[in-house]
Amino acid sequence: MKLSTLLLRIVLACAALMVLLPLLWTLLNAFKTNADLLVNTPKLIFTPVWDNMQYVLGRRSVARALTNSLVICSSAVAMGALLGVPAAYVIARVKNRLTREAQFFALSLRFLPPVAVAIPMMVIWLGLGFYDTRFALIVTYMTITISITVWLSIPAFERVPIAVEEAARVDRLGPYATFFRVALPIARPQILAAIAFSFILVWNEFLLAMMLSTSKARTLPVVASEMSQLGMNVPWGVLNAAVVLLSLPPLILLAVAGAGMNSVFSRKSTQD
Amino acid sequence: MATVECRNLCKSYGSHEVIRNFNLSISDHEFIVFLGPSGCGKSTILRMVAGLEEITGGDLFIGGARVNDRDPGDRGIAMVFQNYALYPHMSVRENITFALERAGTSRDEIRRRLDPVVETLGLDIYLGRKPTELSGGQQQRVAIARAMIKTPEVFLFDEPLSNLDAKLRGHLRVEIARLHRALNTTSVYVTHDQLEAMTLADRIVLMNQGRIEQMGTPEEIYSRPATVFTAGFIGTPSMNFFSLDAGEGRLRNADIDLAAPFPLRAGKVTLGIRPGAIRLVPEGTPDAIAATVERDEFHGDMRLISLNAGAESFMVSVPAATRLSEGERVLAHLDPASLHVFDAESGQRLGD
Q: Which residues are B207's β-sheet partners?
């Protein structure tokens, strides 16, 4: 092995450890008693306890927040996919001024600082009487899911060779059949990854959820953050358990759609 | 089986006109090749026939019916694309049968039609594979099978062999010729490769800048090019051209002086002659051109010699056994029967 390769590998390994160690630490701490946690020398070997998890899962607020998160995020993502994927297809295939503007608009939605969205949204939902409801959060989150799905699906559809769609037209497929039977299946891995990514974004979303809900519609990130305010003694174990719980869905999605997600963000074409 | 007729076909993109008043009538069973340099509009016309490109003006008839406004799927055509355009998410079998399934053909009927097509193209062992697991040549075979099973009225080929390597190209070219003999379907084939055009075509339509430059059998186009463009485009190695003045039964310039092959009006002409029609002759032959050898290319079955005669340079093909050294002085004789004379201004052929 060349020296430069070796050095690069070492740098890479250090970078990986920097990311992985805190995550591993959180995972371990979620299963420690406070006595094991609050020591000067961190313990790698300890008797794992289920107490923290049980405490988190046993709280009614957590159970409700978990349901809220699941319902709100999946609805927003489902609606985002339903509206965003066909929109992305049109933008990818029909190139004109209107679609170019639409493509940029979808992205520009993400330029706004979340607070700038949250405050007017709060006023709107208060005025309409939907403040602190799942419905309000679903609609608000759709601005995120639609724009992300549209933005990431456009390159996925652009990679479908135009000649294949022309072959489909010669094979008597109309525009809808071409979309459902040819374009969508070919772009599927990347489309799924785009949808998964939009799910992760809204699942982790904190600020909007905090400002648009007080109790009924609180989502898991907000409730988890509240655990740090339980008292003078910070319950590290409980906090870590909450974080682990919160991280599970994105990690599972990443495992399922990871490969596709990588190709969404790289320009490399899967086929010429 | 059907005829194809283009009447005054026009195509413009915005105000940019690429095809203007294109007229062509293709008879039943005919194999027509559109040949021309890239950007000459040959693919555009094919795509208009296919229905993939909208027709700006004029009428297109397939089998006697006007099809301008019909979808590609309703024109009775099947198309083979340059980059195969197979459905990557389907197996080879599904690729071939997809159109029939869409059309609601029964399972038994599909199976009955699949077998001979698969057998003809030797695809039996690949049926379960995905297109990405096949080589380019195999992929194009699948694409041809997909077109064949539809038993179309007209086959359209859009540079089907351009993405293949030379050996495979030759192989598949022979296969396409064999298929055409067996099926006898009217075919329109677009290529920029003159070898494909010469070997496959019943008639070549040579195109240049959106117009038909010349139309005819491969022999006609090769032996009687109607314009300087055709003469220069067809034939490998390509034709030599000389700018000469015609007058008093002679064709001459500073370095060349030849007897005119037929009576010509005085004026500037372009004289064309293929490298194979020039012979190296011994001293004392009348009308020979004194030249020096500049380069000697060995082509295996022959040698291509670059000669310089004053300001003129031209190519001669000689038997491979001929030994010439650079700078050697030779005499070249142009076969009077193989001279092509063109008007220097219009580029049109003069004489017979």
A: B212
Which of A166, A170, A186 is opposite residue B88, by nearest beta carbon?
A: A186
Per-residue pLDDT of chain A (272 residues; tens, 9 = 90+): 788 999 999 999 999 999 999 888 888 888 888 778 777 777 777 888 888 888 888 888 888 898 999 999 999 999 999 999 999 999 999 999 999 999 999 888 888 888 888 999 999 999 999 999 999 999 999 999 999 999 999 999 999 999 999 999 999 999 999 999 999 999 998 899 899 989 999 999 999 999 999 888 999 889 888 877 655 567 788 888 888 888 888 888 888 777 666 766 665 444 43
Confirm or reject contact between A167 and chain B (CB < 8 A): yes
Has residue A39 been placed in a domain? no
Domain count across chain B: 2
* Interface pTM, i.e. ipTM: 0.85
* Structural domain range at position B324: 237-343
Written as six digits, the tokens of A130 are: 């939907």
Q: Which of A93, A159, A170, A173 to mutate to test the interface with B (most CBs of B within 10 A)?
A: A170
Residue A248 CA to residue A204 CA, distance in Å, equals 11
**At B250, which CATH number?**
2.40.50.140
At residue A248, the 3 state secondary structure works out as helix
DSSP result, B59-84: EEEETTEE-TTS-GGGTTEEEE-TT-
Query: Nearest chain A Cα to B149, which residue?
Result: A171
CB contact under 8 A, B74 and A271: no
Q: Which residues of B86-105 are buried (b: 16+ CB within 10 A; e: fewer)?
A: bbbbbbbbebbbbbbebeeb
User: Does residue B250 share a domain with residue B161?
Assistant: no
Q: Are residues B302 and B214 in the same domain?
A: no
Look at residue B134 and tell me if it is in a domain: yes
| Contact: A169, B73; criterion CB under 8 Å | yes
Which backbone phi and psi does B87 adopt, to 5 degrees?
Answer: -80, 110
Among A167, A171, A272, the residue with its CB nearest the CB of B102 is A171
| Phi, psi angle pair for A64, to nearest 5° | -70, -40
